[in-house]
Amino acid sequence: MSAAPPASALSRLEQRAEALACQNVNSMRERSSSMTDPRRQVLGVGAVIAGLAALHWAVPNSFLYFHSFLQHLNFLPIVLAGLLFGWQGAVLSTLAALAAQAPHIWLSSGQFSFYTTDVLLELPVFGLAGVITGHLAERERKQKTNLETTKRELEQVYRELQQNFERLKRAERLYAAGQLSAGMAHEIRNPLASITGAVGILKRGHGSIENCRECLDIIEKETQRLNRLLTSFLDFARPRAPKFQMVRLEDVFESVISLAHHAAGATTMELRQVIDEPLPEVRCDAEQIKQVLLNLIINSIQATSGPGAVELGARQADGFIRISVHDEGCGIPQQELDRMFDPFFTTKENGTGLGLAVAAKIIEQHGGNLTGANNPDRGMTFTIDLPLKAASTQ
To answer: Which among 100, 115, 166, 320 counts the fewest CB atoms within 10 Å?
Structure first.
């Protein structure tokens, strides 16, 4: 078994390979720049014209077919000059070809007059073709230049838009953080004020046993309220990632209805399920979907004063499952509908304002959408669109 080469040798080989690669790249760049050098292009066109004129002198005049072939080859440098330098280049190359072949044309005019006539007619035609080619080439170059300028301007505008968009996103995040902080501070201040007042009464020691017990109840109640608030806030700020599995939604609905029956005020409520047809299994987090539905149903129960009904429905649509929670409550004022999913927005006296925000985020993690709208006659309907395809491929 041969020994491995030392690290220094490998390093030298890598450096040598890198140097060769750089040398090849530089040589390719030099060749490319030399090919686009205008002076070299002029010399190339002139060399072709001079070479054709020299061949005319070298070949005997009796070889008319060969002279005619050489004459037709003048088309190439003239058109090439038009492509490279525009119509002016085509005119100059035509004059250069005529000047280079003038001595040969003059000498052969007495012996082969028809050949001289053909040469004098063909060169202007070649020049006209070169002028047209040059004009088209110039127009194409101008259009290319305009396109490149427009492209650079659009790229600059796109970069500015991206920068503005990033600034807007940062401002929006800062605004959202400020709103969350303000809402959190407002929600915490009230329980803390109650706790502080109760502690003050206990500290002075002038209250009766009844007052002390009431103060302790206040402290316990407000502490639990703070705990619920912080738990809901953490659920919103750092939601748990869904644990996807194949789930029968009918089982989830039955569990939610059973739990909702034990909610406060549900004794006078009628809870109904409306499922038109068997639903396909959906890949989702059953516990999170259950949490969302239970939150929506309890909100509907609390929004319905007196006897009423809350309806949980589901149907299969094109590529998704549509779940709806319909109640006969008071709904939400029309001017506040846009804020219903904002953190800390609530119409309930003792609500935290985070339940709907957490529910919307959970549905968003499932690739779905949660919306709410007042019914035309009475109550409100929350709608969950849970995609089949997205949910089944995660």
So the answer is: 166
